[in-house]
Specification:
Elements lengths: L2 H14 L2 E3 H11 L8 H14 L2 E3 L10 E4 L1 H9 L7 H11 L6 H15 L3 H29 L5 H5 L4 H12 L4 H23 L13 H27 L4
Antiparallel strand pairs: 1-3, 2-3
């Protein structure tokens, strides 16, 4: 069994038994899956260590068993499990959620960049998480801006102001926002969706200066997890706006 198959089994077991030990986890997986073999124990051990590094688990079960192989779900881990946000600790589950949220519209670059962001998160590399999410967010704005420019050209309207915004995050988002806020059906939809779309702008600003130069973000695990979890909904919102723009194409 690979780690991607084992991970959701492990997370389900931790939901039911937040104070446990490695051998009990292994026994439960053997009960659930006939294809679990002795060789899979190394992959399971790696997953447990990943959750320890991420702060979802900590060593010990009670005052009499304070060390490994006993483990317990931390307060942070319990919040993740209760909120369903443990998905951030499951890269393949996270990618599936992204694809489902966008109804399959997320392209390969978006999917693979988001996967890399989730992998960085599970490794505790929160700066890498935000940098990768920032690249994916820029790509989403590229798609939206291209759709806007096509719409303007079809209408015989100028595009110079939108094109002149360049790669600077604030100027670019300002021009996108100005256009979407003044366009009838688009304006109503954008008003509803903007709080989610603004998440993309926020994550870009963490890894870019106002003029578009790269910088290392200052970020902790909680904020990185928040941006990671908000990203699929932001992508879905962008694709909804693109759909409205595309409906205005001549038959």
């Amino acid at each position: 069994m690979d780690k991607e198959t084992l991970r959701p089994l492990l997370l389900d077991i931790l939901r039911k038994s937040p104070q446990t030990h490695l051998h009990a986890i292994e026994t439960e997986i053997r009960r659930l899956r006939e294809d679990y073999t002795r060789g899979d124990s190394l992959a399971l051990s790696e997953l447990v260590w990943e959750l320890l590094v991420q702060g979802v688990l900590a060593p010990g079960k009670n005052s009499l068993n304070l060390n490994l192989p006993f483990v317990h779900v931390t307060g942070y881990g319990a919040r993740c499990l209760d909120e369903g946000s443990i998905i951030a600790h499951d890269p393949e589950g996270y990618v599936r959620r992204l694809i489902e949220h966008t109804e399959g519209k997320a392209d390969r670059f978006t999917v693979e960049t988001a996967r890399e962001a989730a992998l960085c998160f599970t490794a505790g590399r929160y700066q890498g998480t935000v940098v990768m999410l920032g690249r994916a967010a820029e790509h989403m704005f590229d798609l939206l801006l291209n759709s806007i420019l096509e719409s303007r050209r079809r209408e015989g309207k100028g595009t110079k102001r939108l094109e002149a915004a360049g790669r600077g995050p604030k100027a670019r988002y300002r021009e996108i926002r100005r256009f979407l806020s003044s366009r009838g059906e688009l304006a109503a939809s954008f008003k509803e969706l903007e709080p989610r779309i603004a998440t993309l702008d926020s994550v870009i600003l963490l890894s870019r200066t106002e003029t578009g130069e790269p910088r290392l973000p200052v970020i902790d695990g909680e904020r990185a997890r928040g941006y990671l979890l908000l990203f699929p909904e932001a992508c879905r919102s962008v694709h909804r706006l693109i759909e409205i723009l595309d409906r205005k194409r001549p038959a």
